[in-house]
């Protein structure tokens, strides 16, 4: 057997354990079936639209397409620059200390291990890219029916962009550390940023308008010719903007670039073990600190300054968890309100309100619904997830519902702050009624509250942390069917009867709050069934 085949066999043996786990617990097969059905439903919803239908009834369609093009190019540019900057400082490998002790001392060539690592990482990124299809139903709300072929092209563009980062990150790290090009790579990065800013400034000057100047800079035909950045943006934009004569050429050029970078990365990979060892040690340290109750991330540097917090009072019993959450947040961020994330959300909200030409209440409710939809699909950080890895939640005195409430107060405060910064400025700029603002705020907030207070029940039903990650989409589907569908039906009935979207949103939010209280009460009764992770 070849060495490459040996590496594949080792991973297949790990995969065999998952198959045996399904054999021991047949109910997991049902979850996989739900997983496939849900994904199939999303695919059917996304690709069943009439791609040839002219979306002439959609208001401001040209502006929306220009805005989409700018956002895609800006996101691709940010991904490229962050990958270049972070990879010039450190390399995040995919190996654990077990691989270091078993694989690295073996006679297998580091170049073969690097090639296999890149293949495995590419496979994971391709699978991740496929799940971007979940965003197409939301895009069809704004842009009308999308052509299936264009959506496939967009997914392929996302895959190509993600695949590019695999060899590019390692090659950047090698050039920075082994050949001493770190300073020159940073100069290139700064020059690229300055060039984009100068293009935007020139666009504003000739257009005599801020928004049109930004559109001119990013949507200029020459932007698409920028290697990787322009090519990727062109391919991803096909899903909304349609295929052009250069789309296929850019795809070929990007795949050719990925092939060349992969060859160069493997050619320079004779010291791959030394390059991957620091990240493996970092992962081991992260796992050890997690088991000891210390919070740490892969991006944390040993020299990172930690804020000193003066503790004036300590909560007693279950409210000690609230005190702990406040102290942890203050050490990490300094404040619940004055954070860069909050400021960024506020700026984006104001910009959206000012630049959006159609300042109607319906657009405002669509924005609220989009935030709620993204919140529903995304993984929300639940405080109890971390506490279940420790023993304090089980041994500290106090009623279970008070412990759960204390753990969720800080996340609730964060949600209120972020949602208010995201939707309140838009509502004020759009001049919608106060009742509409309340409805638009309450709807996404209540969905987060429901997620927080149903977490104990979800953990009891699926106690394994691995299963929670593996079946996350299925859990979201079951959450929708059991928790969100009944309030949604009632909200539709109320909205249809009263002809008020705001009242429908408030009705859904009210029922979600009642369900949250119900789940908190049920968590009190079922708390004894929780397991230490």
From TrEMBL:
Q: Does the keyword Transmembrane apply?
A: yes
Q: Which UniProt keywords apply?
A: Membrane, Transmembrane, Transmembrane helix
**Pfam families from the xrefs?**
ABC_export
Which superkingdom? Bacteria
Q: Which residue ranges does UniProt annotate as crossing the membrane?
A: 29-47, 67-87, 123-146, 152-175, 187-205, 225-242, 249-269, 337-356, 363-384, 404-430, 437-462, 474-494, 501-522
Q: Does the keyword Transport apply?
A: no
What name goes with this protein? ABC exporter domain-containing protein
Q: Which organism is it from?
A: Irregularibacter muris
């Amino acid at each position: 057997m070849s060495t490459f085949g040996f590496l594949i066999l080792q991973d297949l043996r790990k995969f065999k354990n998952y198959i045996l786990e399904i054999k021991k617990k047949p109910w997991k097969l049902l979850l996989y079936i739900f997983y496939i059905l849900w994904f199939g439903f999303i695919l059917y919803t996304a690709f069943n639209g009439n791609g040839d239908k002219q979306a002439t009834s959609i208001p401001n369609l040209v502006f929306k397409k220009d805005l989409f093009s700018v956002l895609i190019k800006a996101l691709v540019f940010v991904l490229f620059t962050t990958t270049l900057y972070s990879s010039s400082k450190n390399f995040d490998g995919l190996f654990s200390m077990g691989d270091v002790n078993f694989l690295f001392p073996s006679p297998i060539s580091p170049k073969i291990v690097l090639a296999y690592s890149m293949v495995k990482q590419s496979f994971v990124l391709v699978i991740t890219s496929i799940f971007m299809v979940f965003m197409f139903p939301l895009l069809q709300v704004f842009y009308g029916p999308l052509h299936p072929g264009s959506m496939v092209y967009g997914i392929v563009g996302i895959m190509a962009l993600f695949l590019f980062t695999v060899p590019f990150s390692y090659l950047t790290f090698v050039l920075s550390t082994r050949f001493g090009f770190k300073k020159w790579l940073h100069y290139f990065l700064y020059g690229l940023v300055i060039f984009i800013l100068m293009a935007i400034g020139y666009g504003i000057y000739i257009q005599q308008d801020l928004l049109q100047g930004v559109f001119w800079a990013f949507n200029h035909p020459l932007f698409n010719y920028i290697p990787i950045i322009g090519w990727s943006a062109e391919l991803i934009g096909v899903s909304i903007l349609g295929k052009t004569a250069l789309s296929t050429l850019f795809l070929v050029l990007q795949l050719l670039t990925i092939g060349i970078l992969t060859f160069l990365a493997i050619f320079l990979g004779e010291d791959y073990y030394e390059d991957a060892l620091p990240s493996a040690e970092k992962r081991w340290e992260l796992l050890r600190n997690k088991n000891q109750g210390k919070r740490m991330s892969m991006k944390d540097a040993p020299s990172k300054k930690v804020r000193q917090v003066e503790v004036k009072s300590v909560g007693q019993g279950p409210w000690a968890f609230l005190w702990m959450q406040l102290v942890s947040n203050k050490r990490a961020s300094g404040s619940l309100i004055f954070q860069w994330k909050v400021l960024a959300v506020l700026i984006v909200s104001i910009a959206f309100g000012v630049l959006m030409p159609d300042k109607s209440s319906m657009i405002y409710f669509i924005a609220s619904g989009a935030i709620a939809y993204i919140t529903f699909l995304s993984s929300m950080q639940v405080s109890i997830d971390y506490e279940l890895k420790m023993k304090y939640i089980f041994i500290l005195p106090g009623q279970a519902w008070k412990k759960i409430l204390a753990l969720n107060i800080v996340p609730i405060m964060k949600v209120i702050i972020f949602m208010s910064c995201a939707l309140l400025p838009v509502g004020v700029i759009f001049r919608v009624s106060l009742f509409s603002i309340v409805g638009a705020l309450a709807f996404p907030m209540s969905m987060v509250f429901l997620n927080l207070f149903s977490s104990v029940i979800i953990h009891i039903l699926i106690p394994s942390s691995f299963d929670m990650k593996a079946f996350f989409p299925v859990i979201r589907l079951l959450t929708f069917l059991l928790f969100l569908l009944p309030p949604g039906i009632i909200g539709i009935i109320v909205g249809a009867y009263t002809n008020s979207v705001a009242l429908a949103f408030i009705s859904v939010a009210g029922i979600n709050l009642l369900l949250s209280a119900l789940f908190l009460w049920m968590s009190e009764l079922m708390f004894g069934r929780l397991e230490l992770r």
